[in-house]
Design goal:
Low-confidence stretches: 99-103
Helix content: 10-25%
Protein name: Guanylate cyclase domain-containing protein
Mean pLDDT: 83
Distance between the termini: 34 Å
């Protein structure tokens, strides 16, 4: 149903080995465990710089470049709140953090 469709479209969106999740999925994780997850989205500042806004979500529609409308594949989920997962904190160490050459 909808869950499989959303997962399929989201997997079409991700790139360079990134891990993305919906707000609904993140909210199903108990709060104590959720606070250990490092997630968020990059937003473009007024001067074109990219900055990470931790613990936040965005819609695919807003993540696409302004000059490039969302690909037709994403129309069904363009308003779905999503976030990128960067890693999980455990004993003061961040696991699964990946090097980002674009961020």
């Amino acid at each position: 149903g909808d869950t499989v469709n959303q997962a399929s479209r989201l997997s079409d969106y991700v790139r360079k080995g990134s891990i993305w999740a919906t707000k609904s999925m993140i909210n199903q994780i108990p709060t104590a465990e959720r606070t250990a997850i490092h997630y968020g989205v990059y937003r473009e500042g007024g001067h074109g710089e990219r900055r990470l806004v931790s613990q936040s979500y965005s819609c695919i529609r807003n993540l696409c470049k302004a000059e490039q409308p969302p690909h037709y594949k994403f129309r069904e989920i363009e308003m779905l709140p999503i976030t990128e997962i960067f890693g999980v904190w455990h004993n003061d160490s961040l696991y699964a953090e990946k090097e980002r050459s674009d961020g």
